[in-house]
């Protein structure tokens, strides 16, 4: 007997198919789920993680404080101060929720209270704040760049819709504007030293990563890398703030007195090349950008070149001494004031005949200078021009410096050599002329001018430091000393620059009065007046150049530039103990030095009370305040320019601080 096969019934087959379908569907679901998770976590995982991080993480940048710029004595020329700016969202302010627990619901307009609060703490009218808070759109600005001390009370207030941002604001002592330069709204240097050393001064911004809770509160993320801001490096300049102030004051006075277009003054240490002052007039207020113009912001000491005129005769005198072996007593013929050259004429301001070579330099004979240059010869004269550094940048490293212009020998015409002999057909900067005379004062050795002394880390560690650097020997020490003693001292003692003399100290130097080309012609009779000199002659320590553009009606250097040289030198000696100590080793007339220990009272009108106090303290003067304690100077008890003994008290009248808001 055989068993019959177990054939499932129709119901059992249907059930089995259903179970198989369910299992297959579940498997497909799991496969789809795995595929979706793989897509989310592996393929697009980083995107979703970033999205999630943005929801509960926020990175906040802390702007680094910009480094300080100091003068040679460590006094602050530029610094970053922290300030606060207040803002508000008018929509939130006008719909401020009622405080809890007072049985009130809904919102109210808090504009009136906020306006009164800010008017009380920051000054200004309540109506001006109300007007800002009632704007229909945008953010209301309630205060910009408010000092921390003034803003502190408001910073502790918790007002819905009102917030503040901390920011760093650059503050300047307001000297050497063209040299130091300025920064932009992003705290980056855009001119001067601020631009040249922007990387060193800028520092490194910090970052803080915050997490947010479900209620919106934030706290530093414990597992995120946080970076503290690092303050920028400190830059120490060779500039002496006192001397810089003196030069700026003198230049402003001479521009005003002679209705000049501009003026430049530089003071240099002869033996080291360090620049103690580099000033320009007109200038601008570093703390008030509205006073900035391209014309005022130009550092003419290095960016402007001109035909120097008679100050360029230093090249002729050096070549004559070394190459022609000329002596001060040698007689030369000055052609009675007129010398024809290639259908043109070279003239002197006086009809000199037979005169000594010393007298030719003392009285600045163009004719003798031209004749000597031709006798030296083109190749040798060109060699001396280049030795003194003309036609090349000085190496000071300032942005915008020009090399001047010296024609290649192959481009010289028949008039180039005689004209160059007395300072035409050649272009120089004021710094180049000063560097050349400082080389003679330094025994014939040309030094590279220096402005930047040291760069230091915030902890005081020195990163870089400049040292005196010899460029080349221009002439022998014997010849250099001879030029100083026999020619350039005679110019000041009894020549064209007697007005440059300094009581008790020997001075050597040279005047220069040159016509300036205007619209391709000399017919407009626009002059550049200059004097360059150094002292004391026995062992020179300091060299100064003063250059005045388009003075009128007087334009001769003996009248315009030379007296300013004397005034600058006398005032800087009076205000600097370092100079007095250095010069006392070489000058027997100590009583003369003591007799000039007075200072000129500066113009204080328009300055803030703090700026005025700092400037007077620099000059050794004291300040007493009449009226408001904060604000701007509107009057002073002693007229600007008056000379007074050190430690004298100057009483100033200060306007109320609302004046600051009106003048911004």
UniProtKB/TrEMBL annotation:
Alphabetized SMART domains for the sequence: PASTA (SM00740)
Source organism, top-level taxon: Bacteria
GO biological processes: cell wall organization
Keywords, ordered alphabetically: Carboxypeptidase, Hydrolase, Membrane, Protease, Transmembrane, Transmembrane helix
Entry GO CC: plasma membrane
Transmembrane segments: 21-40
Chief location of this protein within or outside the cell: membrane
Annotated PASTA domain residues: 595-656
Protein localization: Membrane
PROSITE patterns cross-referenced by the UniProt entry: PASTA
MF-aspect GO terms: carboxypeptidase activity; penicillin binding
CDD domains reported for this sequence: PASTA_Pbp2x-like_2 (cd06575)
Name by which UniProt lists this protein: PASTA domain-containing protein
Organism: Chlorobium phaeovibrioides
Taxonomic path: Bacteria, Pseudomonadati, Chlorobiota, Chlorobiia, Chlorobiales
């Amino acid at each position: 007997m055989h068993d019959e096969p177990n054939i499932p019934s129709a119901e059992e087959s249907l059930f089995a198919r259903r179970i198989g379908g369910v299992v297959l569907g579940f498997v497909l679901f799991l496969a789809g789920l795995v595929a979706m998770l793989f897509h989310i976590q592996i393929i697009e995982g980083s995107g979703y993680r970033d999205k999630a991080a943005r929801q509960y993480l926020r990175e906040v940048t802390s702007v680094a404080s910009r480094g300080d710029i100091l003068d040679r004595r460590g006094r602050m020329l530029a610094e970053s101060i922290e300030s606060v700016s207040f803002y508000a969202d008018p929509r939130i302010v006008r719909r401020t929720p009622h405080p809890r627990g007072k049985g009130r619901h809904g919102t109210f307009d808090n504009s009136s209270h906020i306006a009164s609060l800010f008017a009380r703490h920051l000054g200004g009218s309540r109506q001006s704040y109300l007007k800002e808070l009632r704007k229909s759109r945008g953010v209301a600005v309630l205060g910009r760049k408010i000092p921390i001390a003034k803003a502190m009370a408001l910073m502790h207030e918790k007002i819905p819709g009102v917030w503040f941002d901390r920011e760093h604001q650059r503050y300047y002592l307001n000297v050497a504007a063209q040299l130091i330069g300025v920064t932009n709204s992003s705290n980056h240097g855009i001119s001067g030293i601020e631009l040249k050393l922007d990387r060193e001064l800028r520092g490194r911004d910090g970052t803080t990563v915050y997490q947010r809770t479900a209620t919106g509160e934030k706290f530093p993320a414990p597992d995120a890398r946080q970076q503290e801001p690092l303050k920028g490096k400190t830059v120490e300049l060779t500039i002496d703030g006192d001397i810089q102030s003196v030069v700026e004051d003198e230049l402003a006075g001479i521009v005003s007195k002679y209705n000049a277009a501009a003026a430049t003054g530089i003071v240099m240490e002869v033996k080291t090349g360090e620049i103690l002052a580099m000033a320009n007039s007109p200038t601008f207020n570093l703390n008030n950008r509205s006073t900035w113009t391209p014309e005022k912001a130009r550092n003419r000491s290095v960016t402007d070149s001109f035909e120097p005129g008679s100050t360029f005769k230093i090249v002729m005198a050096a070549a004559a001494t070394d190459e022609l072996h000329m002596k001060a007593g040698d007689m030369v013929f000055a052609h009675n004031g007129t010398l024809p050259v290639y259908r043109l004429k070279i003239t002197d301001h006086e009809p000199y005949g037979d005169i000594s070579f010393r007298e030719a330099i003392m009285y600045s004979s163009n004719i003798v200078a031209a004749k000597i240059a031709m006798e030296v010869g083109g190749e040798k004269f060109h060699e001396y021009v280049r030795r003194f550094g003309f036609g090349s940048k000085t190496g000071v490293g300032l942005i915008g410096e020009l090399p001047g212009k010296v024609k290649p020998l192959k481009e010289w015409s028949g008039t180039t050599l005689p004209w160059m002999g007395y300072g035409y057909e050649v272009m120089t900067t004021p710094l180049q002329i000063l560097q050349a005379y400082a080389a003679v004062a330094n025994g014939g050795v040309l030094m590279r001018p220096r402005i930047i002394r040291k760069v230091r880390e915030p902890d005081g560690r020195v990163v870089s430091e400049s040292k005196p650097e010899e460029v080349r020997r221009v002439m022998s020490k014997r010849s250099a000393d001879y030029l100083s003693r026999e020619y350039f001292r005679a110019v000041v003692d009894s020549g064209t620059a007697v007005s440059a003399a300094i009581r008790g100290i020997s001075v050597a130097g040279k005047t220069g009065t040159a016509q300036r080309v205007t619209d391709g012609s000399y017919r407009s009779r626009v002059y550049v007046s200059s004097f360059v000199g150094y002292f004391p002659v026995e062992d020179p320590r300091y060299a100064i150049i003063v250059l005045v553009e388009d003075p009128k009606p007087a334009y001769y250097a003996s009248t315009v530039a030379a007296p300013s040289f004397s005034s600058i030198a006398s005032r800087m000696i009076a205000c600097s103990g370092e100079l007095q100590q250095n010069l006392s080793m070489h000058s027997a007339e100590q009583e003369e030095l003591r007799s000039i220990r007075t200072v000129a009272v500066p113009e204080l009108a328009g300055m803030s009370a703090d700026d005025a106090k700092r400037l007077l303290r620099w000059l050794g003067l004291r300040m007493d305040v009449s009226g408001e304690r904060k604000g701007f100077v509107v009057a002073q008890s002693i007229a600007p320019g008056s000379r007074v003994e050190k430690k004298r008290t100057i009483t100033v009248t200060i306007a109320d601080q609302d004046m600051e808001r009106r003048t911004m």
